[in-house]
Structure formats: structure tokens, C-alpha cells
Fold this sequence. Notes:
Distance between the termini: 34 Å
Strand order of the largest sheet: 3-5-1-12-9-10-11
Order of helices and strands: HEEHEHEEHEEHEEEHEHEHEEEHH
Oligomer: single chain
Number of helices: 10
Helix content: 10-25%
Largest sheet: 7 strands, mixed
Mean pLDDT: 96
Shape: globular
Strand content: 25-35%
Amino acid sequence: MTTRIFGSGIRRREDPRLMTGQAAFTDDIKLLGLLHAAILRSPHAHAKINSIDTSAARAAPGVLAVYTGADTDGVLNPIPCAWLPPDSDIKAVPHPALAVDTVRYVGDGVAVVVAESRYQAEDALELITVDYGVLPSVSNPEAAMGPGAPQLHEDAPNNQAFHWVVAGGDADAAFETAAGDPQNHVVVSENIIQQRLIPHAVETRSAIANWQSAMGELTLWSTSQNPHIVRFLCSLVTGVGEHKIWVIATDVGGGFGSKIPMYGDEMVTAFCSMQLRRPVKWTETRSEAYLATTHGRDHVQHVEMAATKDGKITALRVVVHAGMGAYLSTAGPGVPTILHGLMYSGPYDIPNIKGDVYGTFTNTTPVDACRGAGRPEATFLLERMIELLASELDIDPVEMRRRNLIQPFEDGHDVATGVTY
């Protein structure tokens, strides 16, 4: 009898429940006295909120309450970022759960309606009138740091969220050597755009909050890949002790990284339950998911690779402008830095590497992990440059890779980015 795990056919434990319709997703949960919330979102990428008239919505059938950023401001603390890369001079700007005086991306939450049914809540949203003063906006992460670009946050001049550097060897010197010796060296360069993408899970995000005022306890059902971190961050936002918060992650219908962050929407749902002392459910629509669930990628990359004429790579130099969106999401800054820059060597022996990563604020949905989170962006730029180098030197691309592969090792192998394989 074999005890091997790899290569053996192990049945997935969750399949019978999922395939027979017995799975329980967050939106399936029903509680006694359950109310339903719907969130009004900004149609503008950047605008001042001059005024919000919620009177008609408050008088609509079934509506129990309508809250705006003026109600949550000072009650809910800003949504925190949980991953602040060291040595990056990061600007963790305040991120309100509901916009207070300025919206900074299409989909920014402006108001929430709580009603007896979801239909009543959605209908009442259409009765809210918001007077916006539209402002200039910027969506390209490199242009956001350019002269004259619209500024998103007073605390982040030049829209720079952070500057993080990874370096090993002496890449600048290696490129100087290559430039000064064209007989024996070659340099190739490329500008690469890793386009912004939208995660698309079958199940949209959902949350149910149930505040027990007598015990001072909050139960939060959430479509979360990350319930322990959500509990910790929820404590920071609501002021409720972490030991008084129970986060339940039921079956999750797809996440791909987009359900790792803790969102302001969950905290708004908790706020509504704490105010009304009844359980409140919020489930985003599909169109909401495109606007308000975190996006991925969004890099503008300027890449150079130097090599000898016989195909030995001597240096890699990268400048990345990584769009963070309007705010720093839970793990957003870690994606283009720790998860990205440390991958620049890949499986190759590259003695000199330098990467400058600029995180920039743009008038777009915040960016976080999605399908590999930083690693695909690093792998693509590295392999793309090897293809260009192979073409420039007329060497078969497979042979080019073979000449630069890290050789077999026994006790670990250090690469220029500071990582030991």
C-alpha cells in the first residue's frame, strides 16, 4: 500500500456538498429580522460632494435608514492597509468607508440605504440626489506622477504612494560596461503595459452583520478568503475588541485574491447593524463587482537587459509605475514590491539587478491580489526580455534560457534580489 501524496487520486471533500446543492454561501444565510442594505456609488472618477439629499429615500416604502459619509465619519475609523513594505516611505492616506466630501473613483461608496427587502433598498437608492462638482482625473499610473496631473490626496504629493527599491550587484555599472563595449555586449529595452484587470468570481461579495448590543459582540458572515485578518482589521475600524468579533467565512464561490482584502462595504454593513440593532445583509450586484471589488495588475514597466554577445545575461534594470487605485487596499502595496520585485531573477543566474517600483494613486478602483499577485507581472517582463535578447543575438530562445539557467545546487542559492532559493 502506497502512502504517496503526489500523483495519487485524492477525492475533494467539498465536491459532494457543492454538486448536490447543499453548499451555503453568504447570501444564502437568513436570520430572524434580517434587513437589507444597498450602497449608492459615485458615477464620477473624481468629484467634490457638494450636497446629498436623502429625504425622498428615507420616506420610501420599507426604508428604515439612510446613512452617508457624514454619519460614519468619526464613528468608523478609516479602512487600514495591512501590508506596508519596509523602506518605501509609504503614504497610507485615510480611506473612509463612505466618501465624506470627495469621491476618488467610479464606484466609491457615497450612501447606504437599509430597508426591509433588497428591492426596497435598491429602489430607494434611485431617490437619492447628489450634487457633484466634477474634478479632473487621472487613470494612467505613470501619468499620475507627471507634471500637472490631478492630485488625489494632500498627504501624497505627486500622487506617489511609495517608492520601493530592490537591488543586488551593480546594475548601473553593468549597463555602463555594456554601453561602452558594443563589440562584446548588447542591450535590449522594452516598454510593457500590464493592463488593469477585473477579477470575476461566480459569487459576488456579500456580508451579513449581526450586532448583539447587550453583549457588545459582532458576528460578520463574509465572502472572505482571509477571515482572521478581516477580524483584526474590523476591530481597528469599528473599535470593537477583536475577542468580541466572530467572522464566519462560509463556502466562497471564487475569489482569485479579490476576497483577501477587507472592504469598506463590510464595515458599512456592520455600522448599519450596530445603529439599527438588527442583522443587516449586503450583497453587491454584478455591475457593482466590476466597479468596487479590487482590480489587479495595472503596471507600466520600462525594462532593460544587458548581455554579452554569446548570450550571457549580465544585468536587468526595471522601472515600474504600479497603479494602486484611489486608496491602498489591504495587501495592495505588497503586490508590486515584495511579491513582484523579488522575482526578477526567476530561474536565471543574473548577477546584477535593480528595480525601482513607484506605487501611484490614480482615480481608479483600488488594486490588490489577483491570480499570482505580482509574480505573473515579473515573470512576463523577464521572459519577454529574454525573447528580445534571443532575437537580437539570433540565438534560439530555448538555448538562450539554457545558457542562463541557475545550475543545480545543494545547500541553497542566493540571487541578486536578496532571495535564497
